[in-house]
Write a structure and sequence with these properties.
This protein is 50% helix and 14% strand. It has twelve helices and nine strands. The longest helix is centred in the C-terminal third of the chain and has 21 residues, at 249-269. Helix 3 packs parallel to helix 4. The protein starts with a helix and ends with a helix. Helix 4 (119-137) links the parallel strand 4 (94-99) and strand 5. It has a seven-stranded mixed β-sheet, sandwiched between helices. Strands 6-8 form a two-stranded parallel ribbon. The chain is globular, with a radius of gyration of 19 Å. The protein has one domain: 2-enoyl-CoA Hydratase, Chain A, domain 1, CATH 3.90.226.10. The protein is α/β, with parallel strands linked by helices. The structure holds ligand L6WJOLX4. The site of ligand L6WJOLX4 has 29 residues, from helix 11 and helix 12.
Length: 303
Amino acid sequence: MALRAALRTKCALSGFLSQPSSSSRHGRVCASTVLAAQQRSNSTSSKISVDFDQSTGVAVMHMKSPPVNSLSLDFLTEFCISLEKLEMDKSCRGLIITSSLPKVFSAGLDILEMYGKSPESCGEFWKAVQEMWLKLYSSNMVTVAAINGSSPAGGCLMSLTCDYRIMVDNPRYSIGLNETQLGIVAPFWFKDTMANTVGHRITEMALALGMLYSPAEALKIGLVDQIVPEEKLMSTAEQAMAKWLAIPAHARQLTKSMMRKPTVDRMTSKREADVQNFVSFITKDAIQNSLRVYLEMLKKRKA
Ligand SMILES: CCCCC/C=C\C/C=C\CCC/C=C/C(=O)SCCNC(=O)CCNC(=O)[C@H](O)C(C)(C)COP(=O)(O)OP(=O)(O)OC[C@H]1O[C@@H](n2cnc3c(N)ncnc32)[C@H](O)[C@@H]1OP(=O)(O)O
């Protein structure tokens, strides 16, 4: 609860839509850069750890919530707090998001947060999902997803919010918005985020069929930007980051805002209604039944 209270306070202070402005980090004299004797810092919470290299201004966020980095309320809360801290540190210009777990980037939203829960819990959970999306999609930092494992549904959404996606070329990994396979529906802002990346028609078909793509297929439709062997993932992410950071920050940030603001505005203007929609949808008996069947299928597949 303390974490959630901390997050609420931080969010109230910073707002969600940090627009690039004359006070953006570009060109600022940065106290932490000047004063820091230590070039690297590390912060760790139970589900996230962050390595920040002050010499490059790039942080690497490692998701480390076994077994599958599912996006539970606690995970999302820690994630948003870490993100907010980096966003407020003007010496941090870039963020690489990756997983510390083998085989899985993120299994998406934690199904157990949506199954058998009260409407109030579901509402609190959904607000945290919205917040993660808003913070990432409107971040002033350059964001790179280093996708080192499967990344279905909410995991795919998290990747899609980044500026650039690099995935390990392993055909056993998959990525996509597979919600319909669970008997649920990707909300409009998941759909918008994917359509902004791969276009309307591909999104329509992908969402309707709940498609999960191999890395090679994902590259072909533009769902990821690059595929690389596992051992080259982080060096490629660093190279991509350097390329994006070489662009004048104010120009890059204004361009990002110009491209993403209509989508962000649409979501923020419907935020409350979206929570109500989610709660009334997910608590329906038929939807709860679909989630139960899906959870059983996951367990059977394992056995
Ligand atoms: C017009 C009206 C519209 C209204 C619309 C309004 C609102 C919208 C409504 C709803 C929107 C919801 C959006 C939902 C988004 C999501 O992200 S849903 C989650 C989707 N995720 C998945 O389908 C992934 C499922 N998992 C897997 O496929 C695999 O686990 C894997 C990620 C590929 C990893 O495989 P593997 O390494 O083999 O691990 P296991 O399968 O053995 O799993 C280990 C344990 O983890 C549990 N688990 C897996 N995924 C999840 C998850 N997402 N949540 C919770 N738990 C998960 C799995 O059951 C195993 O548990 P046990 O060890 O057996 O206890």
